[in-house]
Amino acid sequence: MKVKAHRLSVVDLDMLWIGSFRYYLGRMTISTHSYCDSLMCNWGAIPDRAKVVIMRDLDDAIKRDDDRRESGDTYRPLGHDCDSQKWREVWKVLSATC
């Protein structure tokens, strides 16, 4: 049986990048760091609509994370310290290219 390859549309790519971003944001696993690296490496090829959503959501998560850390809350939107550092690295790299 032959399987025909399906070409992804811009809408498909938007959904994949945004969905995976929202899945990994706040997770506390090494796969989060791998996703962050992939996001930074592929930023130029990500559709503009997805970039806008990712940057908006990441900016919001960083602000909420800062507020939670300042208040001493145990829930942190960016995850553990190492995850927070990685997401802040992503912000720095991506915002420099926008």
What would your notes on this structure say?
- The protein has 98 residues and is mainly alpha-helical.
- It has four helices and no strands.
- α1 (10-24) runs parallel beside α3.
- It starts with 9 loop residues before the first helix and ends with a helix.
- What portion of the residues fall into strands of 2 or more residues? under 5%
End-to-end C-alpha gap: 45 Å
Gyration radius, to the nearest Å?
15 Å
How many extended strands?
Answer: 0
| Global mean pLDDT | 92
Gross morphology: elongated
- Biggest sheet character: none
Structural class: mainly alpha
Detail the poorly predicted runs: none
What percentage of residues falls in helices of 4 or more residues?
over 70%
Number of helices: 4
Order of helices and strands: HHHH
